[in-house]
Amino acid sequence: MLLLLLVLIPFLSGIISFFFRSESVKGWALFSTLVTLAVAAVATGAVQNTSLAYKLPWIASLGANFHLYGNGMSIMLALLTAIVFPVIFIAQWNKPLPEMGRFTGLMLMAQAGLMGVFLAHDLLLFYFFWELALIPVYFLCSTWGGEKRIPVTFKFFVYTFLGSLMMLAGVIYLYLQTPTRSFDYDMIRQTGAALGAFPQQVLFCAFFIAFAIKMPIFPFHTWQPDTYEQSATPVTIVLSALMVKMGLFATVKWLVPVLPAGVAYWSDTVMILSLIGIIYASLLAMVQSDIKRLIAYSSIAHIGLMSLGIFANTEIATNGLMVQMFNHGINITGMWLIVSMIEQRYNTRNLRELGGMAGSAPSMAIALVIIAFANIALPLTNGFIGEFMLFHGIFQSENPNHILYMVIAGLGVILGAVYTLNMVQKVAYGEAKTVAVIKDISKNELLGLVIIIALIIILGVYPKPLLGLIN
Amino acid sequence: MKPLIASALFGIIMMFAALSVKEKKSFTIMAALFMAGLTAFNIAELIALINGGTPVPLFNGMIRYDSFSVWFNTLMSGVGLLYILLCGRNIERVGQHVGEYYALLFFIFCGVNLLSSFSNLLILFLGIEILSIPQYILAGSDKRNLKSSEASLKYFLMGSFSTGILLMGIALLYGAMGSFDITKFNFMQSGVNPMALAGILFLIVAFGFKVSAAPMHFWTPDVYDGAPTPFTALMATIVKAAVFVAFLRLFMEAFGGINAHWSLVLSIVTALTLFIGNITAVFQQSVKRMLSYSSIAQAGFMLFAVLSINATGMKGIIIYSVAYSVATIGIFAVLMKLKDYTYDGFNGLAKKEPVLAFAATVFLLSLAGIPLTAGFFAKYYVLTAVLEQGTGSLWLVIFALVMAAISVFYYFKVIMAMYFKKGDTELATEITATDKLILGIACAIVIVIGVAPDMLLAWL
């Protein structure tokens, strides 16, 4: 029941939001997301002892059920989704967009889709939610954002839709192989694992292309920097903090256990692609002058490390991945919030035109520094434990090249420190390039950032609750 | 049997009503009532069939109403009702002879009825002719418009040509098998009579013409573009679905056992249809013309059901017929409300008429096959059906999926124009609350089938 509420509350309140004509819709959205957060918190408490499930018959003739299932891993991502949305609404409180009702409705629909993807335990249902999350985001990105948003978003949509269709072919094939024609997770897993090596290798491609485009890993990433740059900040947060996790989570849940032979065959290829992505994106991030693009590339590098962790295929790496997914979601939300504040106040995102924020807006500068530290995974911030576990896991991997992979990935971390600190230095220090009086953080922005920073520090010092959730 | 008589009778009544009734609006009301009556007759027949058990062959086994055909007829008359309600006002505006247009519509439904239930090649031929001849007239019903007359002539010539080929195919089959009765055909796996094979090939070509499968599709864009828009909506949906059902029925029941001999030809036809339909649609400037290419592309997907020749394929064609018909009629209904049929004509529609734009979006998403709309399950079922036959058609399925991704280009162009482009759409007619209500119902149908496709399959 809890799980159903997690999907249903955002879905229904999203539909209601479309009918709001005034700006009061933001109060409604905040209320709805806080209720969802409360439900997610209860679910997190409940999942400590036992897994949660909710099952309704759906399409009997196909053997598809409306089956939601929550274990520590999926509830953790549901919790992340539930945390990020209210933070967005709080921090953006005094920056209303035109047509707020439609905006809120689409945002909440996207939240429902994301929840569904993380909780679905039936392959057809999973596919439904996978698409359901995409459609609202398409409209969000195309309606609000930069000048080039329409073609850029369309590219993003066609990319992901093509990936989804490839996955659909895989879904149908797997379904037809199940002995009783069922989409149930356990049945799919048994059937997939029992398939011959060659079908598994082909199926792996069908599924992984869809997931890789969503993550995105090199060379499927070309939609990402443009889309992040062009969309409005709340949408960028949804894309980078949450939708990216769809691809990673789907790989862990629907690929690694379902097609073990396919994973074994392709893991080297994927790991090398991930490494290329890490280095390539880090190098590109170093030369960006637009902060949004810089963070977009840095995100590709982070995702590369996480996907490396998945294919290291050790328990500790998978656990590290889960922790890192949660923390990356928190950190990048904070990062985008700061960037949007900078953009609003200085009217530019160009690093060359920024500087001296420590003098003009000291609180913002402090927040930026803390979040940047978390982004490069300094100890005592939440990023550290996940990255540590990921490296540990890659080191333990049975892959013959694991040491080499680890060293290259480590290089990526160093590069990450270089470009992140460089950005901090250019934005916060140096001479102020603008003479206008800059207003420091407002109350609602402060509240949003405090939540993020509190999570960064608490989970950095005491990560046990997160680790407990996974085991 | 009763629905067949009823639709013929309704057609004749409409024709004579044209003598005395002057008010154009009353024709539409009459037609809607008759269509509701026809649906009721079909439902009664369906209930009788469910309670009574086995289907009875009629006319020495020339017609056989089984649950599949009666259910299809029921659905199509339901869609027909929706069509009259959505397009009625535009049909009234085509010309002076509104009564005749509706009379022809009911004659078309006679053809639909025969095509879904034939068990004999002669009835097939009869059905196709009864279906086609009213269409030739309807295509040319806007007499003052040269393009409409051109469409009619072109359609008539091409249609008669393909009828000739159909007849030739039937004759060859009769020569080889000694019967018109499709239940009496029993082919040996080895050594099929070459004359019969030639006949089957002729039939594929003839059906290809009727369903506008490539390379027999070239008449479609001109005819669909030239014909008055409400009749294009009819031709592209109910009529096409009926021909597909006949196609499936014939090839499954009569030639299913020897599909090794014809499935490659049909696979190539399918691939070509998908390719030409989708690629050409991308480059169209007019939405009406885009929709005619899209109807070619959708025909490519429906051909999968014929290729599969199994029970899932039958389910697929039922869902596809309804999903595609409702969405296409809906999008044509929206189109007819606008003055300008190009993409730019849609600019800014979402601001001006949000209900219209939302409905159009749902229909387009369904045509593109996005989950939560009927179009997704339509594609899902036909693709599953063909994969059930084995992985031999896997290449075709992958190809179809790539083509489905391409279809997003032209369907979303309309959505982009409506929502993200600035402009002032000019409306051709005022949009009443009734219009919005009926469009809303059509949207609801699309979404409900997209969530619970079982509803459509319960009677099979």
TrEMBL record, chain A:
Transmembrane portions of the chain: 27-47, 75-91, 103-121, 127-144, 156-176, 196-220, 264-287, 294-313, 325-342, 363-391, 403-424, 445-462
Any Gene Ontology biological process: ATP synthesis coupled electron transport
Protein keywords: Membrane, Transmembrane, Transmembrane helix
Domain of life from the UniProt record: Bacteria
Keyword DNA repair: no
InterPro entries: NADH_Q_OxRdtase_chainM/4 (IPR010227), NADH_UbQ_OxRdtase (IPR003918), ND/Mrp_TM (IPR001750)
Membrane topology: Multi-pass membrane protein
GO (cellular component) term, any one: endomembrane system
Localization: Endomembrane system; Membrane
Domain NADH:quinone oxidoreductase/Mrp antiporter transmembrane as annotated: residue spans: 120-409
One GO molecular-function entry: ubiquinone binding
Recorded family membership: Belongs to the complex I subunit 4 family.
Entry protein name: NADH dehydrogenase subunit M
Organism: Taibaiella chishuiensis
Automatic annotation (TrEMBL), chain B:
Record field: transmembrane: 6-22, 29-50, 70-86, 98-115, 153-176, 196-219, 231-252, 264-283, 290-311, 317-335, 355-382, 394-412, 437-459
Keywords: Cell membrane, Membrane, NAD, Quinone, Translocase, Transmembrane, Transmembrane helix, Transport
Subcellular location: Cell membrane; Endomembrane system; Membrane
GO molecular function, one term: NADH dehydrogenase (ubiquinone) activity
Any Pfam family matching the protein: Proton_antipo_M
Catalytic activity: a quinone + NADH + 5 H(+)(in) = a quinol + NAD(+) + 4 H(+)(out)
Stored InterPro entries: NADH-Q_OxRdtase_suN/2, ND/Mrp_TM
Membrane topology reported for the UniProt record: Multi-pass membrane protein
EC main group: translocase
EC number: 7.1.1.-
GO biological process, one term: ATP synthesis coupled electron transport
Family: Belongs to the complex I subunit 2 family.
Quaternary structure note: NDH-1 is composed of 14 different subunits. Subunits NuoA, H, J, K, L, M, N constitute the membrane sector of the complex.
Function statement: NDH-1 shuttles electrons from NADH, via FMN and iron-sulfur (Fe-S) centers, to quinones in the respiratory chain. The immediate electron acceptor for the enzyme in this species is believed to be a menaquinone. Couples the redox reaction to proton translocation (for every two electrons transferred, four hydrogen ions are translocated across the cytoplasmic membrane), and thus conserves the redox energy in a proton gradient.
PANTHER family the record matches: NADH DEHYDROGENASE
Protein name: NADH-quinone oxidoreductase subunit N
Protein species of origin: Taibaiella chishuiensis
